[in-house]
Amino acid sequence: MLEAEVIVKGLGKQIKKQTIVEEISFHLGSGQVLAVCGGNGAGKSTLLRMLAGILRPSSGEIQVNNVRWSQDRKRYANQIGYMPDDYQFSQGLTAEESLLFWASLRKLPRDRVQEVLVMVGLDGQKHKRVTTFSKGMRQRVLFAQAMLAKPALLIMDEPTNGLDPFWMQEFVHLLRGIKQEGHIVVFSTHQLEVANDIADQVMFMNQGCNVGEGTVEDIRNQYGSLHAAFHQSLGIK
Ligand SMILES: Nc1ncnc2c1ncn2[C@@H]1O[C@H](COP(=O)(O)OP(=O)(O)OP(=O)(O)O)[C@@H](O)[C@H]1O
């Protein structure tokens, strides 16, 4: 099993004097999955983009397997896989070509592309253009892209948004597999059933702050259900 550790301490982001994310801290070990839940504009994407190393934090520290983003960005980036929520695929590229392109950027061997295609169940469709794929299949290509470098930390922004129940369950199944291998996963979601199915830890965000966290069981005990905790995080009684 992969050895992995993520330590986040007092992470914050201010943009034009507005606080977007405030004092977020957590600690995750091998195979742990954190779901970041919250309403629109809660600060989830901003938090995830800081973890992915594509947005500079205003305060705090992020460490993945003892590598700090602030000290060595290249080594930090090598530990991270990131699945954005708004990726526009290039017209004309097949699934295999898209993955070969990403693999070449990271100087990874071609064989790894075949491995991830098999992992996400797209080996038989690899010569088809990604722009002809369904949303569920495109999410698999993005997932494969994020897993290319076997990252210690996989970060996913709203990975199941727009997926029907079949693809959502398939996605949960894929995540279970990589969790078993020891990868740490942090993902954002509005879909509490996904958090319920796969997360070890849940964090609720509102206006950039952590307004409640714990294991799924802790949250059920404290609030009654994930839905009740979500409503409370939004300030809905
Ligand atoms: N570059 C920016 N400049 C100004 N405001 C920003 C910027 N980026 C984010 N914000 C604001 O910060 C807040 C949090 O945005 P963010 O996208 O992180 O939220 P979110 O929880 O991911 O929302 P959603 O679920 O709608 O995607 C929003 O009010 C957004 O308008």
What does this protein structure show overall?
The structure is a single chain. With 237 residues, the protein is an alpha/beta fold. The chain starts with a strand and ends with a helix. The chain is globular and about 50 Å long. The longest helix has 17 residues, at 165-181. It has a domain at 1-79 and 152-160 and 183-237: Rossmann fold (3-Layer(aba) Sandwich). A six-stranded mixed sheet has the order 6-7-8-3-9-10, sandwiched between helices. It has a four-stranded antiparallel sheet with strand order 2-1-4-5. The chain has helices at residues 44-51, 73-78, 95-105, 110-119, 135-147, 165-181, 192-198, 216-223, 226-233, and strands spanning 5-15, 18-29, 33-38, 59-64, 67-68, 80-83, 153-157, 184-189, 201-206, 209-215. The relative contact order is 0.19. It is built from nine helices and ten strands. Adenosine-5'-triphosphate binds next to helix 1.
CATH level 1 name of the domain at 1-79 and 152-160 and 183-237: Alpha Beta
Unreliable stretches (pLDDT < 50, length at least 5) are: none
CATH topology name of the domain at 1-79 and 152-160 and 183-237: Rossmann fold
The secondary-structure class comes to alpha/beta
β-strand percent reads: 25-35%
Q: Give the H and E element order.
A: EEEHEEHEHHHEHEHEEHH
List ligands, each type once.
Answer: adenosine-5'-triphosphate
> Biggest sheet, strands in spatial order?
6-7-8-3-9-10
Largest sheet: 6 strands, mixed
Helix content estimate:
25-40%
The CATH H-level superfamily of the domain at 1-79 and 152-160 and 183-237 is P-loop containing nucleotide triphosphate hydrolases
| CA gyration radius, whole angstroms | 17 Å
Number of strands: 10
What distance lies between the first and last C-alpha atoms, to the nearest angstrom?
43 Å
- Output mean pLDDT: 92
Shape descriptor reads: globular
Q: Please work out how many helical segments DSSP would assign.
A: 9
CATH architecture of the domain at 1-79 and 152-160 and 183-237: 3-Layer(aba) Sandwich
Family: Belongs to the ABC transporter superfamily.
Pfam families: ABC_tran (PF00005)
Protein name: Heme ABC exporter ATP-binding protein CcmA
Domain ABC transporter: 2-232
